[in-house]
């Protein structure tokens, strides 16, 4: 017998006939008409080269061959029904899984605390590992499953098998120390141009958008400090007359632990989209779906990325410069 000839539906017919010993009643139990059952029985007899069921006064009685097949067929159908067909359920409250997330230091500052608070309440044994990868490395890691989800701004991550979901559109804000001697409640373009700046230059990240906006508007800032990461920025700004332009959510996070204030930019600030990224291989995987849904809900809920409402500006604007 060639296994390619075996149709799982035929085995369901066989099992129903064993239980009911009547063609019509067996068909009703599995949703098949009497003609369809007769056709399936004929295929079974051909497949096993045996009558399998013989009509008697007590109904369709199984042959010795059918009796020998009854237990293994029932076991196979149970295996398919209970272990192959069901999608495995992910129970976050019971899971000890480690999720690997790719995010920048911005993501670690802004998103990770919200996620960890949620995990403490709903998935106390789930663990998180974060990594920072280049775009080619990230695409490979998402494909292999070494990274479950990436969150943030990844403009070059465009593989055909990758999926993404837009989270929200982000903007920039200027941060200065609370007691800055010359910058008070508003920020003019003159002040922005004259002040020493601290800037971050992570490759392919949001700061590239800011630099392109500067170039487009003809703005040349006085860069005093050039850093590869954001973590040093709030302490430099809080302890000097230096200012910095950072993503809005980052500025608000900084303001929670250092003495700084947030001011709108004195020119039309650029905006950019943040996304969740994952690979199509894991689109239906329950744990991956749970993590994506959790992060999307936490990041897209009432958040710190609402626009800065202070629109008063002093001095000339970039369009006037």
UniProtKB/TrEMBL annotation:
Residues 300-321 are annotated as: Disordered. Residues 310-321 have a biased composition (Basic residues). Keywords: DNA-binding, Transcription, Transcription regulation. Residues 6-63 form the HTH lysR-type domain. SUPFAM superfamilies: Periplasmic binding protein-like II, Winged helix' DNA-binding domain. PROSITE patterns: HTH_LYSR. CDD domains: PBP2_DntR_NahR_LinR_like (cd08459). The keyword Transcription applies. InterPro entries: LysR-type_TF, LysR_HTH_N, LysR_subst-bd, WH-like_DNA-bd_sf, WH_DNA-bd_sf. Belongs to the LysR transcriptional regulatory family. This is LysR family transcriptional regulator. It comes from Paraburkholderia strydomiana.
């Amino acid at each position: 017998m060639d296994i390619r000839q075996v149709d799982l539906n035929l085995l369901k017919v066989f099992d129903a006939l064993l239980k009911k010993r009547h063609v019509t009643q067996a068909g009703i139990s599995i949703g098949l008409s009497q003609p369809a059952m007769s056709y399936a029985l004929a295929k079974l007899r051909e497949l096993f080269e045996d009558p399998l069921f013989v009509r008697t006064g007590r109904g369709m009685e199984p042959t010795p061959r059918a009796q020998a097949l009854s237990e293994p067929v029932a076991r196979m159908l149970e295996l398919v029904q209970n272990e192959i067909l069901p999608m495995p359920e992910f129970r976050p409250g019971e899971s000890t899984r480690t999720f690997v997330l790719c995010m920048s230091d911005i993501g670690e500052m802004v998103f990770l605390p919200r996620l960890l608070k949620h995990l403490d309440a709903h998935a106390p044994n789930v663990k998180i590992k974060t990594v920072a990868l280049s775009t080619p490395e990230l695409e490979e890691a998402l494909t292999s499953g070494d990274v479950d989800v990436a969150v943030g701004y990844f403009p070059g991550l465009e593989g055909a098998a990758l999926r993404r979901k837009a989270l929200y559109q982000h903007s920039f804000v200027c941060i200065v120390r609370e007691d800055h001697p010359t910058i008070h409640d508003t920020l003019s373009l003159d002040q922005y141009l004259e002040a020493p700046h601290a800037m971050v230059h992570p490759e392919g990240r949001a700061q590239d958008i800011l630099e392109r906006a500067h170039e487009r508007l003809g703005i040349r800032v006085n860069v005093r400090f050039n850093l590869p990461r954001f973590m040093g920025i709030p302490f430099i700004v809080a302890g000097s007359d230096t200012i910095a332009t950072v993503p809005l959510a980052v500025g608000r996070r900084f303001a929670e632990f250092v003495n700084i204030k947030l001011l709108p930019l004195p020119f039309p600030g650029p905006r950019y989209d943040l996304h969740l990224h994952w690979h199509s291989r894991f689109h239906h995987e329950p744990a991956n779906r749970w993590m994506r849904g959790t992060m999307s809900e936490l990041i897209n809920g009432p958040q710190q990325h609402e626009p800065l409402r202070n629109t008063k500006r002093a001095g000339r604007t970039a369009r006037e410069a």
